[in-house]
Write a structure and sequence with these properties.
Length: 134
Amino acid sequence: MSDAERHAQGMRTRREVLGDAHVDRAEARKDDFTADFQDMITRYAWGEIWSRPGLDRRTRSCITLTAMVAGGHLDELAMHVRAAVRNGLTHEEIKEVLLQTAIYCGVPAANSAFAVAQRVLGELERPAGVTGVE
């Protein structure tokens, strides 16, 4: 596969997993400084790894959630909680993944992850236009 084909595949996968709105925001923020990085993650992370046939996207989401907790990447965790829901994980399954991380990544990391996931899942349950702030 050429780099252009890998980029196209990556962009399709990225949009399917993260949603058009997220990808469009990331693309709009891209500039000369970040363009090479965005191209690299689109080709490699999304065009190569997330597009491989060896694992389904639900499993990849479980692994990715765990990696985000282990690394303390809470902003990325929020994005990947949304992606996990898009990939078909239920709230209960996300909870089980986070419980598992408490054992292997530590209780403080899981505590922070639960707070992020609770916020994101709550946002996903609210009707559009409702902020939850009164």
